[in-house]
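Issue: copy button drops trailing tokens. Both records pasted manually instead:
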Amino acid sequence: MSIKIDETHGKYMHDYISKICNEIGPRSPGSDGERKAAEMTAKMMEDLCDEVKMEEFKIAPKAFLGWLKIVTPMFIISILLFKIFPLLSGILMSIAILIALMEFVFYKQFLDPFFPKKKSTNTIGTFNPTQEARQTIIFSGHIDSPFQFNFIKWWGGFVYGIIMFSFIVTFILFFVISVVNAILFHLNLLLNNILLSLITDQAFSLLWIIMMIVGIPLGVLFFFFTTWTPTLGAGDNLSAVSVVMGVGKFLKEARESGDFFPKHTKVQIAAWGAEEIGLRGAKAYAKAHQKELKAENAIVINMEVIVTPTKFYLTTRDLNSTIKLSSEVINDLEQVFKDLNIEVGHIATPFGAGSSDSAAFAQKGIETTCIFGVDLGSSMKGYMQHYHTVRDTPDKVDPKALESVLKACIHYLKFKDKNLA
């Protein structure tokens, strides 16, 4: 049984991206656009799959990035209070770092109870195997589009990276300095020690001046990190959902034509909602179906930003590098890419870069990795100039990149199904 993937599949996938962008537009989490895109995708899946379902879940769309609107003023106020009220400065920074850790580092729904709620949707299509199902493979991407990152729009990806690094380092350093200063200041009140007085009056005064000069401008800048401007999100992440739909198109045609179709593998194609606000859709699905997924020996092949055909990456660690992904899945996929003569590397999502939906499944013990489709060697001159901006339009996605990842997905499916025969 052969595997035939060509330009017609690339056109089908790219046309899907254009259709969603042109007929629906932006799809921020919980918006009418996200819902309409999910419904349109479900309707298209009905023409491909044996079964299609949509599952709703509640979200607080502005909680995930809204923490910046809370933490940056706290950061600035803490700097201003550093010499006047050291204890209050330290307390404010401790609260600020807690919020940042919960929301930005670990993607916890820490602030969600305090923000207005909406609904989002996961869309899942299923193909049943020709014989007894012994495993499930899910190919997935998220259908929502991000709010704009203003720094990338204004200055591009390289400057964005420098500003992000500078703010994170400054924020963490000032947290440490403010807490130590508060402790030493109040310790000196009790002991009236000359050395402690010198440290708090001179050394920490210099640090305070530096923070006034560097920290306050960075804090003000980061308050405007996002202004809730919705984007089309063609690359991030309709490109991945288009490959998901490409898997569906291939399997429908294969069943009709006699090409490869799985004997013992149930295949699901999924478009998760609300990824851009902390993996909310994938988290909801993984939580609701954890027992079922484990019982079915499920594997999740997630995809993100499939835009350039020159090189691809398999994610080894996710969620700011705090979560390890499946070595077995990565090794198998790496071999598939090499067999297809497609260049592939490994990447650990660095601290500060966020996460993909794979982390939500890995946290529940599901085998997974994420295929990432940007050539990082040229990213600062290419797609990363448009990532998370209104410039992320269909023309930024190369159909050849979609074809390459579709080939890898189908060959991986064949490899895994053949091993069960």
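Record 2 (pasted manually too):
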Amino acid sequence: MSIDLDAYLNNPLWSILVETVHAMVMYPHHKAYTAEKILIEQPDITARELAAKLGIPLGEALVILYEVREERRRGEGQ
């Protein structure tokens, strides 16, 4: 089962989830590892797969994937 990220982005609690994830001590490291290693090898990884692979909460995986993919999308458009 894949997760429809748009359903989360339009939820009023999305900003609270993002704020909570950003406060996590290991978040910057998980995000960097995801961007520099995991997405290179598995560009289509799902949030559930990322959460299992890193042993992190699903919410953190959702935020990481959203942010890294958005950063890449914006970088490609410039």
